[in-house]
Design brief:
Length: 752
């Protein structure tokens, strides 16, 4: 990232102009040639062929230069090759030690430099190397030569240099060849050249940079800075009472706000707090439930107001500050909340960062450390690959929708257990319905199959967490699940106050057990940087510097040019760029409209959802009330395609509700209707899941019916012998096992 490379240099570009450390005395030294002398010299030392070669001089060598005479003198002394070498050495030493400012001035004052003849190609290589130098392009940022302008600047510098350069300087560079030393020699001269030749470009780029300045984020919230805030860090592992204790203070306060990482958790707190008689409203991107007379609000962290004053604020799962995509929302809440007392709850990974932020903001920090109520116990025997060993109260964790359904099907087919499911694409209402179904003892649904969506803060009646696997697709490739996440998920087992206060965890397969134990033993990684993203106002300022480019290009430019302190990173925004790209051609949207549309919750990999977002934006752009234009399905899903369809429909409705909360009310007027549809679909999804016993499909990758049939036949063949492992895992585990047995075989052979 640019910020890292820049360090503090941008504020102090001076070192570059003096990077060749030359004393004043040296400049006055008579052995250093004057610009005129440099210009007039005709001889060069060809490093490649090891002899002095003559450059073609315009003046035909009529005026003897100091260089000439030096060479002549040495040659006259009959010093032979040694003499030539020492001349070269002497010349190079002089050239190498020249002050770059003085050298630049010398180049400028020359009418016409030496003709380079065939040496120009060697010099050209040096300049090519310079143009490609990442070091040079990054250091040039310090004087506001942007990365995109750098090649042009080098090209012009190269032309200037070739026109003006003297033989000795050319020789010196050629003797160095295309290398870092040559780059470092040229760089300060290049800087002098840029400062003189490109003042407008530098000014322009400087304005861009300054408007993309995300350094010192603690200064962005002057009101919060004017307050004497007390930050209480509830620091500890899962199930240690962090949120519970923070919520006690929240409920006691006159006015309080609870910031949740998930809609579902915000709803849980909303319910809990109201049930205790403390009036509390709910605010998420999609829903606003205003409870009359309430002074408390449970919200999702993205929705937190940094304008309102509160007595007590709670920021739950504070370690999410380091989340690559959403981290900025936690950082903003911590820096900007106007609350006398802020309770942050989380694991110890961001403790040092919070300490640093508090020292920057001047807030008082109180640390409260917690231990887990009951230690989590690892069951070493595992399920030995057999899902028939699943027991009541188990939560089997799988990391893809496909695996979740495969596991559910396998359990329901081979045991008497019934499974509830929780995964990210389900609406919070459905997740809650499934969680309640699982928590409730008076039904047959006693096993939960869930994705990592179950991992944060939720209180479920889980006896044992069984990891179906410990690797997942990260959007690019299959990677091991990070230890911190494994801990979070395993920590769902055995919650205080639940039916199973003593938690167990294990893996489906023996091969995964070591990794599980390793993850649980590992101390929390210390986070070095937390996320930031510009507010609309910051982005608007930046956009004003680049008036003629599209919104997506603006986002890209911002990413390239923004400056950050070493403790922060710019949150990933590829999904925002995808939406921006799609909306580029939509007419009638202001910059702010585009900014808001790009933050709408949409699965960018779902073409149907993207289509609806495009339609919403186009209608909005025409200044026409946006309708939902979507029918309701007749009943619950009968197969996975219908289930996927229900999921997408709910996401579209949810997106509409989100937009209605982020744009003027009259532009999205069908909120009531959409809310009712969303409730119905969440209900249908719940119904569908309880009876789901079909094979899962990938979104948008439905195979033709003939292929599906073939696959089904193959599966049936495999299953004739009884239980078969979930399809998506078979290959990887079989491969691992084969490798292991091969190793054993080889070891056996060697021993024999
Ligand atoms: N002092 C207490 N008295 C009664 N119940 C408590 C107490 N402290 C915590 N609990 C209960 O223990 C369970 C776990 O507590 P809590 O949710 O605060 O844990 P946590 O440390 O925030 O865990 P996580 O990191 O998973 O969010 C909750 O059901 C909570 O209500
Ligand atoms: Mg908690």
């Amino acid at each position: 990232m640019i910020s890292e490379l820049w360090g503090g240099n941008i504020l102090n570009p001076k070192p570059f102009s003096s990077s060749v450390d030359t004393k004043d005395d040296d400049v006055k030294d008579s052995s250093v040639w004057s610009p005129a002398e440099v210009a007039e010299s005709e001889f060069a030392y060809d490093a490649d062929v090891g002899k002095a070669v003559g450059f073609e001089s315009e003046d035909d060598g009529a005026e003897s230069s100091m260089c000439d005479s030096t060479v002549t003198e040495l040659e006259d002394n009959d010093s032979g090759r040694d003499g030539v070498d020492s001349v070269r050495y002497g010349q190079h030493e002089h050239v190498a030690s020249r002050d770059p400012v003085e050298l630049y001035r010398a180049l400028c004052s020359v009418e016409r430099g030496a003709k380079l003849g065939h040496s120009s190609s060697a010099l050209m290589e040096v300049f090519d190397y310079f143009a490609k130098s990442g070091w040079a392009s990054n250091q040039a940022l310090a004087i506001y030569i942007g990365l995109s302008f750098f090649p042009t600047a080098v090209h012009k510098f190269h032309k200037f240099f070739f026109k003006k350069c003297s033989t000795d300087v050319a020789n010196y560079l050629i003797s160095l060849g295309p290398c870092d030393k040559a780059v470092k020699y040229l760089f300060p001269v290049f800087i002098e050249y840029c400062l003189k030749e490109f003042p407008d470009e530098i000014k322009r780029f400087r304005s861009i940079i300054e408007s993309a300045d995300l350094t010192k984020p603690h200064t962005w919230f002057p009101f919060a800075r004017a307050m004497k805030r007390k930050i209480i860090y509830h620091c500890g592992p899962t199930n240690s009472g962090k949120t519970y204790n923070a919520l006690q203070r929240f409920m006691e306060a006159e006015k309080g706000i609870y910031c949740s990482p998930l809609r579902l958790l915000a709803m849980e707190v909303f319910d809990k707090v109201n049930a205790r008689g403390v009036y509390c409203s709910l605010l998420t991107g999609q829903e606003k439930k205003s409870v009359p007379f309430s002074n408390h609000v449970a919200c999702t962290v993205e929705m937190v107001s940094v304008d309102e004053l509160y007595d007590v604020a709670v920021i739950d799962e504070i370690q999410m500050m380091a989340d690559p995509t959403r981290g900025y929302a936690w950082t903003r809440a911590l820096l900007g909340l106007k609350a006398d007392e802020i309770h942050v709850c989380g694991d110890p990974s961001v403790l040092k960062m919070v300490r640093k932020i508090c020292s920057d903001t001047g807030d008082e920090l109180i640390e409260q450390h917690y231990e887990r109520f009951k230690q989590l116990v690892v069951e070493a025997k595992t399920l030995l690959g057999d899902l028939k060993k699943v027991r009541s109260g188990d939560c089997v964790v799988a990391f893809s929708r496909r695996e979740i359904f495969e596991v559910k099907m396998a359990i329901e087919k081979h045991t008497n257990h019934r499974c509830c499911v929780i995964y990210g694409a389900l609406p919070p209402e459905t997740r809650r319905q499934q969680a309640n179904l699982f928590n409730d003892q008076d039904n047959e649904f006693d096993v939960l199959v869930a994705s990592d969506a179950v991992g944060m803060g939720l209180n479920l009646n889980i006896r044992r967490v069984v990891f179906n696997g410990l690797s997942k697709y990260n959007g690019n490739k299959i990677v091991p699940v990070p230890a911190s996440q494994v801990k979070q998920i395993a920590g769902r087992a055995g919650r205080r106050g639940s039916r199973y206060p003593e938690g167990l965890t294990t893996t489906l397969h023996l091969d995964d057990l070591d990794y599980l134990i390793e993850c649980l033993k590992q101390p929390f990684d210390e986070v070095k940087r937390v996320g930031l993203f510009p507010f609309y106002e910051q982005f608007e300022l930046f956009a004003a510097q680049l008036p003629n480019i599209t919104f997506r290009q603006l986002l890209e430019n911002f990413g390239e040019n923004c400056r950050l302190d070493g403790s922060y990173f710019l949150c990933q925004h590829d999904h925002i760029k995808r939406v921006a790209n799609m909306l580029d051609k939509v007419q009638g949207l202001s910059l702010e409209d585009r900014f808001n549309f790009c933050f709408a919750p949409v699965n960018v990999r779902d073409p149907k959802a993207m289509y609806h977002l495009l339609r919403f934006a186009s209608t909005y752009g025409q200044n026409v009330p946006v309708n939902i234009a979507m029918g309701m399905p007749k009943g619950s899903a009968r197969n996975d395609a219908e289930l996927l369809d229900l999921e997408t429909r709910h996401q579209v409705l949810s997106m509409y509700l989100w937009l209605s909360n982020h744009f003027k009310e009259d532009t999205f007027p069908y909120v009531k209707k959409v809310e009712a549809m969303a409730t119905d679909i969440a209900h249908l999804l719940g119904q569908s899941l309880t009876k789901a016993n079909w094979k899962p499909e990938s979104r948008g990758q439905r195979k033709p019916k003939s292929e599906q049939k073939e696959d089904e036949q193959k599966e049936d063949e495999k299953k004739k012998d009884g239980y078969s492992r979930p399809h998506s895992l078979v290959q990887s585990f079989e491969k691992k096992r084969r490798e292991k047995s091969l190793q054993h075989e080889q070891a056996g052979k060697i021993a024999a």
